[in-house]
Amino acid sequence: MKNNQFITLGIESSCDETSASVVAEGRNALSNIIASQIKVHQVFGGVVPEIASRHHLDNINTVIDSALKEAEVTLDEVDLIGVTHGPGLVGALLIGLATAKAMAFACKKPLVGVHHIQGHISANYLEHKDLKPPFLALVVSGGHTNIVDVEGYQEYRVLGRTRDDAAGEAFDKVARVLGLGYPGGPMIDAAARKGNPHAVAFKRVYLEKDSLDFSFSGIKTGVLNYLNTQKLKGEAVSVEDTAASFQLAVMEVIVNKTIMAAENLKKDKIVMAGGVAANSLLRSMLKESCNKKGIALYYPSPILCTDNAAMIACAAYYKYQAGIEDDFYLDAYPNLAL
Amino acid sequence: MNILAIETTGAQASVALIDETGQVSLETSDQKMNHLQNLMPMVDMILSKRGLKIDDLTYIAVSEGPGSFTGIRIGVSSARALAQALGLQTIGVPTLKSFLYHVPDYKGVVCPIFDARRNQVYGGAYQWMDGQAEEFVPGDAYDLDELLGLLEQRFQSVSGQKEVTFFGDGIIPYRDQIEAWQQASPNNNMQVFFAADDIRLQKASSIARLALELCRSGNRKSLYDLKPVYMRKAEAERKLEGK
Fold it and tell me: Is B199 an 8 Å CB contact of chain A?
């Protein structure tokens, strides 16, 4: 406790950001330190698990020190340690977990393992102080594409998920073939702003009628086929137009399915989360649709969209308040279900 | 003084406690490759068996590698976090050299080899000289033939008894090759042995004994200077450099 406030230390290392954060009373981030490895992995065109794990180990202790220092909190004043225990890269996850477990054990603090997606959704609690469940959550990131019915702080029901690539993964792959580099999301977003989204009609994949699932591997192939056809014809390709058309095709499906789910469940709130929630087209399209339907739309600021530990601390706080605590056998689960 | 020693570089994790008199206790996991889950409960167990509390620890020692990359990281990150939380210094213990402490009275050369696949090993050779642990062949990543060649060379400069015992998980895939090397060796009085099952692999008790030596000689460091010793770059980095 510090100034009569409950203090949570959050730790996140599931992919390529090493992060630690101190959160007061579950909702007030006093610090949120993120050591990004984007530059490290750029030369490889994507995240290399072994290299990510090595960098997590290099960074984690100083990241935790900085988070405590910036929040002006000592380890003694921490009431709870929350850590991502899945899903994610197993070698990356275990750096955060081993660290959190050893610290909690040595300082005799309670420990809570947090699902990464619950963390992403909880980023909205940090941003919007009055937001409470129930709501519909759309989680889109490099590793996940989910529509989730959030009935309470601990009640999550996945309504739709990707059957192959995550949306962010499709962005990375298409960015690579378009020569836009890594990470694909922001690169395509930027190129698309200069292009015509109706230049190429990429197929929208809706799967079965009423399905809330996604499939993005087809559109990636569609882009490849389009590029090859143009090449054979000897016709020039506009990278901007292709990026814009690809982006629109993906986002249209995501927006339509999300609105359909909200209407089916009569939800008056939609909450966006995950790295792709920072995409400008997705935000503006969803905003427009929500306005038309009278649905309130929430999304976190870009820094809380990326992987960060404040969201993990927040989610850990609510789990702990609900009476959930983990023991020191806590393990990493690369495919942890929500 | 109480040093906690952590060993997670091999298939089986273990922890040990050693005090200034050299009295060691050891706790070994009965599960393989489950280090992350079992490590802290094992630390808890060994402390309570010894009647100690976590705050009674003076230094945190860890087997720094080589070995399984993932295993090394579990050990190093746990050791660092314990040191960070308790405000203690750490001791990085060379995993290969620790095998010498499996056999404190042995007169021959101890040669641990860990299978690094594709005919490569992490290996080194060590021996006791007047009660001091000495390096015979430096620890590194080698092609097996290269390591055996270095051993051969070193033996040529040694007079008298020439005896080497191999340790580590590399014994299993490379035993035949090592025996063939011995038969072809011009050192016809060289004797080759393979460690018995119960002393073949990494053990936290040996990490603790070497840690105590290192501690006495001033080899203690801040947790920020405690680094994993992989001895090999990541595959993707090697490929990139090879291009």
Answer: no
> Is residue B240 a part of any domain in this protein?
no
Q: Which residues of B touch A75 (CB under 8 A)?
A: 85
How close does chain A come to B122, measured CA to CA in Å?
A: 18
B162 and chain A: CB distance < 8 Å anywhere? no
Contacts (Cβ under 8 Å, ≥6 apart) of A111: A80, A81, A82, A83, A100, A101, A104, A325, A326, A327, A328, A330
The ipTM estimated for the assembled molecules is 0.96
| Domain span at B125 | 97-199
Are B146 and B191 contained in the same domain? yes
Chains A–B, number of C-beta pairs less than 8 Å apart = 99
Interface of B with A in 82-111 (CB under 8 A): 82, 84-86
Confidence of residue B93 (pLDDT cuts 50, 70, 90): very high
Question: Would A329 be classed as within a structural domain?
Answer: no
How many domains, in total, are found in chain A?
2
Share of chain A above pLDDT 90, in %: 94
Structural domain contains residue B177: yes
Domain membership flag for residue A333: no
Contact status, residue A272 vs residue A147, Cβ threshold 8 Å? no
Q: Is A329 in contact with B41 (Cβ distance < 8 A)?
A: yes
Residues A91 and A140 placed together within one structural domain of the fold: no
For residues A149 and A292, membership in a common domain is answered with: yes
Are both A288 and A316 inside the same structural domain? no
Above 90 in pLDDT, residue A324?
A: yes
Looking up tokens 């206790």, which residue turns up?
Answer: B25
Q: How far apart are CA B224 and CA B222, in angstroms?
A: 5
One-letter identity of residue A175: A
Q: Note down the domain range covering A196.
A: 133-300
B-contacting residues in A 308-327 (Cβ below 8 Å): none
Task: Give the DSSP H or E segment for A262.
Answer: helix A239-264
Lowest mean pLDDT among A105-109, A164-168, A324-328, B84-88: A164-168
B187 and B110 part of one domain: yes
- Tens of pLDDT along B143-202? 999 999 999 999 988 877 789 999 999 999 999 999 999 998 877 778 999 999 999 999
The angle that helices A217-233 and A167-177 make with each other, rounded to 10 degrees, is: 20
d(CA B219, CA B229): 16
Question: Is residue A327 classed as helix, strand or coil in its secondary structure?
Answer: coil
